[in-house]
Sequence to fold (247 residues):
Amino acid sequence: MNAENKGGKLRTIKRAIQLLLLTTLITACSLTSCTVQKTLPKDISHYFRTSVWKVETQAGSGSAYFIAKNYLLTNAHVVAGATEITVHNKAQTLSYPATVISSDSDIDLALLHINADDYYPYIAQISDRIPKPGDELFGIGYGLGTPQAHKGFAQEQISEITFLADFVTYPGDSGSPAVSHGKRGIVIQGTRSAVASYPIGISYIGYVTQMLTQMSIVISGPTIREFLRRSLPTTGCAVNPFIEVEA
Fold:
């Protein structure tokens, strides 16, 4: 085989592998809750249905989750400048107007209040540590406006308050929880805030190519706990039982 034919064959194989990788990535990233939730642990599926809600404003949408009865946590950028905020539970066709009780743009967190005295959500504990790389996580939110769940793993810590997770965050997922489950039940490991693209090297047939992979930037549990310690005492609300709030 001459060099020209060999080079053409290698280019064909290279394109085929890239197409296969791209197809795999698209398939993994397009799974909706109808597909993924069938494989979710029952406790996480229940938490998703009852405690993760969609947030809508005049500017767009995001996600939020209950940290105490009548109180939900989301990203500050989801509700920034909003004059009207509505939260929805798509699984139970519930909808309530919401108000911002506390917001901190420096850490991109906001606390919302609703009047839903007849609704009792699943309240999960919030982690007091940043997960280690390789820890299993589930990202659950309203990406692209529909309920979606993604299984992934924690990656490296990228700042004092954030870490990476290897599931994709779509528009509408901002404000949603990244959770784990185990002997302690559901544990909130963080709040998804943004997307970062990182290059990865893939080696085949003596070649190394660079592809971009999307990662979720997640605000850590300890940061959430500190925000709630500062925010909850001023609200007079029933406190998340897993947060020690200083008077």
